[in-house]
Every structure is written in structure tokens, then in C-alpha cells.
Design brief:
Helix 11 crosses helix 12. This protein has two domains: about 1-55 and about 355-375, Urease, subunit C, domain 1; about 55-340, Alpha-Beta Barrel (TIM Barrel). Helix 10 (about 275-280) links the parallel strand 14 and strand 15. It is built from twelve helices and 17 strands. It is α/β, with parallel strands linked by helices. The strands form four sheets. It has a five-stranded mixed sheet, covered by helices on one side.
């Protein structure tokens, strides 16, 4: 049995406790939360300077793109970024696998215990069978014409099957409103089953999306026409959120939301990836629009980020919002665990095994630029 204590304990299922004690067993399961150190003999206590909180949940990641770190151009916008991603196939399987392994190690070191991961290939399967982290795998589909829909869905269903056969959570999900025709949205809905808990979609990541749907013009429309895309993409939708109605499904996680307005954020869950938003579009969402109980955070990929660190993302959110530390930690852990269905993660609730992070070098109860994280369990 271990008794962990720090300047503050943030259980996330109850208010923070000054000098609180976390009791865990040898497996890391939470046994109890004790309100004060006086309840435990000093000889049994493990003392830490800083705060203790549950492990983080990276709610939006592209682990399979880890080999593209430093290979894209910063600040050129979403179309340039997507074009750069095409070089993903110019690498050997060995290079890709090594990068995936190193990226997962980085997440573990940075206190991440669960991941919502976008998958276009099976490149990450072998790594995930090691069960180092908990994954919800979103099998992402693109389809801007109507003549390839059958083959797209056959491939997606097969990839979902590969993950599920290895006891991995997996759901087919659309990339974005501008990259999926209405018929493919319908096909995704038709192929959902009882194992599908959540759909995720990139949403309002660029101003170009709004220009495409609301004004039927702009760089996105030019780009799509170069791809011989179906005009249904923009003609049947008057705003980017209209594609959600086509899914006719339950829980949806909107990712990025950099240029979202208040109406866009109703009735759904949402994920922010601030460092990637700055990298690609040099913009951030208006965090005052978000309901903090429905907001989670992701790192996106190493193609759009120089690290896979939730703490680094929180530093940016804190500087651009009025969220206090307890709210930020819920965004980083509890909310993501709930949205992704990781029932034993996200809080120091008795019986859960959420991991334990120590955050050091704080300014009272505010994160500093030099704050760092140490994974305790």
C-alpha cells in the first residue's frame, strides 16, 4: 500500500485538498482519499512538492504520423498542411514503427494514460497490442466523390475489424465536413454497431470551411474542384456543422473548433488542440464559448506539434482563458476519459486506476512556463 501526498491533491471528482493523501494499492488502484496527512503516520507517507492529479487523456492524436515531425511547414494554412501530409508514404515501415514507438514513450513520460487516436492505416496496431496506453481508435475516412464509396467503406470496415480483433476500441469516423460527401456520411451511420460509443470529426479548423459552406467560394472550393470533388459537399451544406446532421448518431466529438461560434458548440462534446491550431492556422479558439464540462484537449500529431504533452497544451489554454487549475485538469483528464469511455481513468475515484501525475514548479495554483510533469504511477 502507498500513501502519496503533495502540496495539493486534485482528485477531480471532488474539490482539491491541501496536503491531502492518495492511498493506492500495489496495482495503482485508488483505495481512498484522505483529507489530511495527520491521518497517516509520517513514516508511511511519500512526500512530493507540487500537486498530484490523475493521468492525462490525449483526446485527439495522430500517432501514425509521428515520423513526419519537422516535415511540414508551419503557418501556411490547412490546405498546405494537408498537401504536406501526402509525403507520409515516402518512408519505410521501420522508420514509421520507430517513430510510433518513440512517440508513445513520449506520451507515457508526459503523464498520458489514454488516447483518442486517428487511424488511416494499421501502422499503430503492433504498438498498441503492448497495452502501454489505453486507446480509442477512430478509423478515419475521406471521400470527396461518389464513385469510390463502396471501396472506402470496405477498407474502413476491414481496418476496424483488425483493431477489434486485438481487443482495441475502434469506430469508423469522418475526417471533416469538406472531405466527406453526404452519401459517405450516411454509410458511416449505417455501419455503426453496438461497440461504437463515439464519432469524432475535425470541425471549424480553418476560416476556409466557413467560406466554402456559407459563401460557396474560396480556396477550399478551388482545391476541391481540382480534386474533381462532388459539388454536393458545399451545395447541400450551408455551414460546416450541417454534416453532423447527416451522421444521425449519438455522441460526437468535434475537434479543433478554432473558428467555431456559440451555435456550433451546442449539444456536442469538443476537443481543442491549441499548439496544432497555432502551428497550422496561427489562431486559437475563443475559449469563453466552451462549456468546460464538455471540453477536452489533444495534441494532434507530431506533424503539427513539436511534442505530445498535455501539460504544454494546458499552458496555452490557461494563458488564453479564465479557467482555474481544477478546471484545466478536468479538461486534461476527467472530461476526456468520460467522453472516450475510459471508465477507470480520469479521477481519483475509489476503485479506478487512473495513473498519478506530479506537476511541479507552479505559481501557487497556476501553471508556469517552466512547470513540468513527473509520472508517479
Amino acid at each position: 500500500m502507498r500513501f502519496l501526498t503533495a502540496d495539493y491533491l486534485f482528485p477531480l471528482n471532488k474539490n482539491p485538498l491541501k496536503e491531502g493523501v492518495l492511498q493506492v494499492n500495489e496495482k495503482g488502484d485508488v483505495v481512498a482519499i484522505l483529507k489530511h496527512r495527520k491521518l497517516v503516520p509520517d513514516r508511511n507517507l511519500e512526500f512530493y512538492n507540487g500537486i498530484l492529479c490523475p493521468g492525462f487523456v490525449n483526446s485527439h492524436c495522430h500517432l501514425e504520423l509521428s515520423h513526419l515531425k519537422g516535415m511540414t511547414t508551419e503557418g501556411k494554412g490547412i490546405i498546405d498542411f494537408i498537401s504536406n501530409i501526402k509525403q507520409r508514404n515516402n518512408y519505410s515501415k521501420q522508420q514509421i514503427n520507430v517513430a510510433i514507438d518513440l512517440a508513445e514513450q513520449q506520451m507515457i513520460k508526459n503523464g498520458i494514460v489514454g488516447v483518442g487516436d486517428i487511424c488511416n492505416t494499421n501502422d499503430t496496431i503492433n504498438q498498441k497490442t503492448k497495452n502501454n496506453l489505453r486507446y480509442y481508435n477512430f478509423i478515419e475516412v475521406f471521400g470527396v466523390t461518389n464513385n469510390t464509396l463502396d471501396s472506402i467503406m470496405i477498407d474502413a470496415i476491414d481496418l476496424r475489424k483488425q483493431f477489434r480483433e486485438l481487443n482495441q476500441k475502434a469506430t469508423i469516423t469522418p475526417h471533416a465536413s469538406y472531405s466527406v460527401v453526404p452519401a459517405l456520411m450516411k454509410s458511416i451511420t449505417n455501419n455503426l454497431d453496438i461497440k461504437d460509443d463515439l464519432i469524432t470529426i475535425h470541425m471549424n479548423e480553418s476560416k476556409l470551411e466557413n467560406e466554402l459552406f456559407e459563401n460557396k467560394k474560396g480556396a477550399f472550393k478551388d482545391w476541391l474542384q481540382e480534386l474533381n470533388a462532388s459539388h454536393e459537399i458545399w451545395e447541400k451544406r450551408n455551414k460546416t456543422l450541417d454534416s453532423i446532421l447527416e451522421l444521425e448518431t449519438k455522441k460526437i466529438l468535434l475537434v479543433h473548433n478554432t473558428f467555431a461560434n456559440e451555435d456550433d458548440l451546442k449539444e456536442n462534446y469538443y476537443c481543442t488542440c491549441p499548439k496544432a491550431n497555432l502551428y497550422i492556422e496561427n489562431s486559437l479558439p475563443d475559449y469563453s464559448l466552451f462549456d468546460s464540462t464538455k471540453l477536452c484537449v489533444g495534441t494532434d500529431s507530431l506533424a503539427s506539434n513539436n511534442s505530445l504533452s498535455i501539460l504544454e497544451e494546458l499552458k496555452i489554454i490557461q494563458d488564453n482563458s479564465k479557467f482555474d487549475l481544477n478546471t484545466l485538469l478536468k479538461i486534461a483528464s476527467k472530461n476526456g476519459a468520460e467522453i472516450l469511455g475510459f471508465k477507470d481513468l480520469g479521477s481519483f475515484t475509489e476503485g479506478k486506476n487512473p495513473g498519478v501525475n506530479l506537476i511541479q514548479n507552479l505559481d501557487g495554483l497556476k501553471i508556469r512556463n517552466d512547470s513540468n510533469i513527473l509520472r508517479i504511477i
